[in-house]
Amino acid sequence: MTKLPETLGALKRSPAGVPERALRSVKDEMRQNLLARLCTDVPLFEGVLGYEDTVMPQIVNAILSRHNFILLGLRGQAKSRILRALTTLLDDAMPIVAGSEVNDNPFAPISKYARTLITEAGDDTPIAWVGRENRYVEKLATPDVTIADLIGDLDPIKAARGGHLLSDELTIHYGMLPRANRGIFALNELADLAGKVQVGLFNVMQEGDVQIKGYPVRLALDVQLCFTANPEDYTARGKIITPLKDRIGSEILTHYPETVALGMTITEQEAWTARDHRPVRIPDFVAELVERVAFAARADRRVDKRSGVSQRMPISVLENVVSNAERRAVATGEAEIVPRVSDVYAALPAITGKLELEYEGELVGAATIGRELIRKAADETFEKRAGGVNVDEIVMWFDEGAALLVTDDAKPDVVLQGFDVVPDLVRIVHHTGLAADDDPAQSVAACELVLEALVARRRISRSDGGRYARAVPEQRRRPNQDFFGGGLG
User: Fold this and answer.
1) According to CATH, where is 3.40.50.300 located in the chain?
2) pLDDT in tens, 158-184
3) CA distance 204 to 84
4) Where are the alpha helices (DSSP H) in 300-399?
5) Which residues have C-beta within 8 Å of that of residue 199, sequence separation ≥ 6?
6) Which end of the chain is more exposed for a tag (fewer CB within 10 A), N or C?
């Protein structure tokens, strides 16, 4: 590995000392590295899916235009991940004047500390190198953030120890923005920043400098500024002031996955499903059902559209589904973990906590809405995979007064015996390819999918305890015909 220059003189004689490279701004650096990336097949941002034809071209245009930009979108739309991935467009390492708090460029220092050191040491000025990850500064905007936090303040203790006047630049305690010099500064939830603090960003964005505490101290900062905001929140909780919006070069809208298949891919990528003591096998229709719960929630009029339904919901639900199946596998001694539809009901806590409800929804309750979303998702999944199949035999069996109690803590072969009593049920799941004949674990999950679809269509009913019966009031059912795990209850 080539040794990096450690003094200013050595840096001048290295490729990094070429003026075209040494004096370029961070926006030019990102622009040049982006142009090189576009000539390859390497993804722009690893792990960010679904934005290839919508958001990514706009981000590319903003960077090529050397714009500061803002990402507007509801929660859970990968805004922060995109900003953190911008560091991949920076050089591997950047030279600075050693000891500088503001990443002074050795060829164009902006702080008094660096200028004095270079004047005294000349080519012997020590050089330090900063990696790309350390050139990214992120701050969550909250109403209590002050100008001093972002820009800086005068430090009386620093002045006293150094024997400096308060007006001396060496007494400055730099804020986050100056410390992000020659790097990326990301501010999340911009609208939550107090208006007077937003005003403090004007000079940085337009004139490229800052002033500290009213003293005539100017720092010509070189920063790529990026922001995020929720377009609904900033009309209710706070506001991005008009002059600041005018200074943001590009406004880019993000969005949720546009298809269920894409959502499943994202959820599969993000969810923690691998467990250490047993293999996990998630039936694809269970994964689809989980994803459709989120899609159904986003379309439900009782769920607040302004808040949105984060992609974190299906991720959390799938993790909970696997955990419930894992608990069952440990209790019954199953060799592998195979989630069922009933495990999705066990994951209700991961659904209800992520739903912001309208008034109508509050009257019904998050748990009730969550169960309805699961059934709707099950119906849509079944329709897509086995639409048009004749289920009349199953419905007639329940209409005659029979009932089936399905628990989520029994072994697959035991539960399958109970499903086998229901006419045509097991045959349908095997005939439609939902499960193979020799796969009892997935067969159970598929049978539950069929029954849940019928519940959603109100052709049969289901109690919270997992009891399936005809779609009539409770008092008209005959409790002496309950089947439990294949046996007569």
Assistant:
1) 8-253
2) 655 666 655 566 667 788 988 999 999
3) 21
4) 312-332, 341-346, 348-352, 359-364, 366-386, 392-399
5) 241, 243, 244
6) N
